[in-house]
Amino acid sequence: MSHTTIKDGIDCVISKDYFYKTESYYKLISKEISGKNKVFPSSNDVLDAYIVPVALTRAELAGIPILQWEISSGDVPNPSIVYSVNYFSDPSTYYIVKNREESRKISKHVTNCGKYPLCYQKVPENFEIANFSIFFGEVCTENENIKQIANKIYQTFKIPLINALFVIIDDKIFLSSISPVNVSKLSKEEKSMIEKTLLVD
Amino acid sequence: MGKFGVFVDRQTLSSSNQLQSLIRFRDIAESMGHEFYFLFPNEIHKIKTLDGLFIRSKTDPMNISYVASRIAELNGVKVIDDSKSIQICADKINMYLHMIKNNVTLPKTKFLRKSENKPENLKGIVEEIGLPLILKEPSTSFSMRVEKVNTLEEFSKVASRFLRLSDVLVAQEFVETRFDWRVGILNGEVIYACKYLIPKETFKIHDCVDGHRVYCTVESVMFDEVPNEVITTALKAANAVGTGLYGVDLKENAGNVYVIEVNDNPSLETTEDEFYPEAYSKIVSYIMNDSRQKFSDGKMKFSEVIDPDGVANDRN
């Protein structure tokens, strides 16, 4: 489900999920090809954002601190955060592997027994994970550092609604992935922020 | 002279034809003075050290080949296939929308959204394009998830199955032919042409019939034996996508030429280029910006023998 608002000759398609081959994604494609108005966000930006290694490369080039990533056919060091890279990938789904047994089991699962590669991000033992939904660059937190990074993510990918997974290591914040917004997991504050922010017809 | 990389994965290396084709690329690139590197997915970070990248693995926006293409672009490395070509060609909805926008002749084509999967809508599509019709899941490749449906019931059944994989499907008029034309185009120039002879057991170039794989026969065809309308239509279709390397599939029926699809990452390992010995070096030259080699043979300058008014050049 998506909403479109037209502002200053730009079609803004607002959706919680612009995933490849969804109706929202095709709405962007169709508007881009028709060429009547400029479209926001762009289909290229949403594809980039939801593919973890591409999102992190773009984010790094934009000066956003990221977790370094590697592609592997199965071997994953411990501890690591693991994402799949294939037709069925969803960046909302990630795995934390902490030992050899988990690493073997998860890599077998995400690579479909070695058929596809995976993306991993090596982390130290003392890491924490924090999830934030970003609405037009705004985020519900008092942490100025996260506010700044959230705004930079918005400026880079120009996606109205997005979820960002951060990893915190020794008080430093690193982007791990960007994914569609899961409405059922939004806090009251976040829902209220969406209501204030959205420019729905 | 520069560093030329070919991005491959384990599927690329699964047949001896593919392997031979890759070795030929290596030999030609090296004979042109370039350093040659095979790159596997776990070496993706090395892309930024190259001068040019050629992707030889199945392309789709959701798989590792798209990552390789974007990493190349973000690091200023010239790449075939570029990400825009992958985004358009790997997705039949996107591709056909580009064809329609550029007035490329297609079989009658309709899109079916998940929310429209109702008997009255299916009936409306059948009334418009007839039966049998071809149903395509957008990210089909090698004829997978392309099915011919003969009745409304079959249409409904196959549509429901495909709609689990995509929110929109393609329904297309069935155009019966004995073979498909395949025209290889690089940067708006034809670099080879061939025929894919459709196996008699099926309607598509690859299929699984009674548990057995059947494949088309490939026949390379000299340029002067290809109808002019096939060439002009193929160029129009390729130009509607971009300036990369494309294999355009076309059907000729009752005096009409229809584009069936524009493929990025076209196959080059099954004698498609038998009569076009310069096809590989042209690809390497284009990627490496090597002007010495670029389209040096007068006979191969197809754009010069084609009426430019018949060729669209409005790239999106």
From TrEMBL, chain A:
Q: Which part of the chain is the RimK-like ATPgrasp N-terminal domain?
A: 126-195
Q: What is this protein called?
A: RimK-like ATPgrasp N-terminal domain-containing protein
Report the superkingdom from the record: Archaea
Task: Quote the InterPro entries the UniProt record gives.
Answer: RLAN_dom
From TrEMBL, chain B:
Q: Name one Pfam family in it.
A: RimK
What is one GO cellular-component annotation here?
Answer: cytoplasm
Cross-referenced PROSITE patterns: ATP_GRASP
Q: Which positions are tagged coiled coil? A: none
Residues in ATP-grasp domain copies? 96-288
Q: Which Gene3D superfamilies match?
A: ATP-grasp fold, A domain (3.30.1490.20), ATP-grasp fold, B domain (3.30.470.20)
InterPro entries in the record: ATP-grasp, ATP-grasp_RimK-type, ATP_grasp_subdomain_1
Which superkingdom does the taxonomy of this entry point to? Archaea
UniProt GO molecular function? ATP binding; ligase activity, forming carbon-nitrogen bonds; metal ion binding
Instruction: Supply the alphabetized keyword list.
Output: ATP-binding, Ligase, Nucleotide-binding
Q: What is this protein called?
A: Glutathione synthase/RimK-type ligase-like ATP-grasp enzyme
Q: Give the gene name.
A: rimK_1
